[in-house]
Amino acid sequence: MANIKVLVGSTYGNAQQVAEDCAEQLNGLGHNTVVLAEPKLEEVVADDTEVLLVCTATIGLGEIPNNLMPLYSQLKDQAPQLSEKRYGLISLGDSGYQNFANAGKLMDELLQELQVQRVGETLEIDACETPDPEEAASEWISAWAAQL
Question: Rounded to the nearest 5 degrees, what angle is found at the Cα of 16, between the Cα atoms of 135 and 113?
């Protein structure tokens, strides 16, 4: 089973709740999962980090939430070599806005640049169409975990 660090980008708590539910489900499947509400670069690059699960909302005009932005900036500036790590991505947003789920797209692009290996497809949860984001994430996480 994998050591998974869940990187949370949340302002109003929805992404945090989805992340915690996913971690609980992953732990139930036998993985060792830790939720990082204020993720730090040293936690991401640590040797014990095998898999990252990014769970982020989008704020403002398509930006990364304040609690995830410092990590994003450090990863972008320092560009550590992370090709031995894998990741998955859950992006929450509202399709009523022009830059729907853009924070997730930015994180996905950055992780690809850093050569982190994406596992499966990303999940975009649209607040306009999905009344229960935790349920949508639960279905996705089952399929994603099976690919680890």
Answer: 95
